[in-house]
Hints:
Layout: E1 4-10, H1 32-44, E2 50-55, H2 59-72, E3 76-78, H3 95-101, H4 103-111, H5 124-141, E4 146-151, H6 153-164, E5 181-186, E6 192-199
Parallel strand pairs: 1-4, 2-3, 2-4
Antiparallel strand pairs: 1-5, 5-6
Helix pairs in contact: 1-2
Amino acid sequence: MKPTRLFLIRHGEVELEAQGSFNGHRDIGLSDHGRDQYRHLKKALDKEPVEVVFSSDLRRALEGADYLAQAFGVPLEVRPQLREMDFGAWDGKRWPEIAQEFPDECQARLDDPVNFQMPGGESLLQLQKRLLDVQGEILNDFSGKTVLVVAHGGANRVLLLNALGAPLDRLFSLEQRYGCYNLLQFFGDGASVLQTLNRVPGEEGYG
Length: 207
């Protein structure tokens, strides 16, 4: 039986004022460069037999996912479960501001990054559950097919760690640049293989 091939994409670069901040559920747009990154993704994946595009419902993912679905001539399926982590009261803030406003919570996060729940937000364990639930649905419905999933940096890292069998506290051991793609293969016996990691088409040296 053929493996299910899942191209896990991080959305393109966001608007300048949002760069460097914790961007979770707030709905921010793409920069012009971010839109260009989706065109490079289409060119890089052009020969792939894509069956469907799944996307987070947030604009920075959905705009590019819609472009890719139209370019490949395949359906677009929107799944809010693919959203970035809910940062709650930290959403839209930069780390120095958060550290000053929430010193005790910042220390708690450093002490237990997996179980810490951001004020008004969610924990990594909660994020993992909703992501694995929707990934399971995708793998079940498109077994043996090639699928694009457009999501977010933190969300991607959680899914990649799970595929590698690595613990959640290694979240920041994996880089996810704007406009990158990763290729995961899933087999019927539950095994998974990470074939490509954090590749950004269109950047110097891409080949």
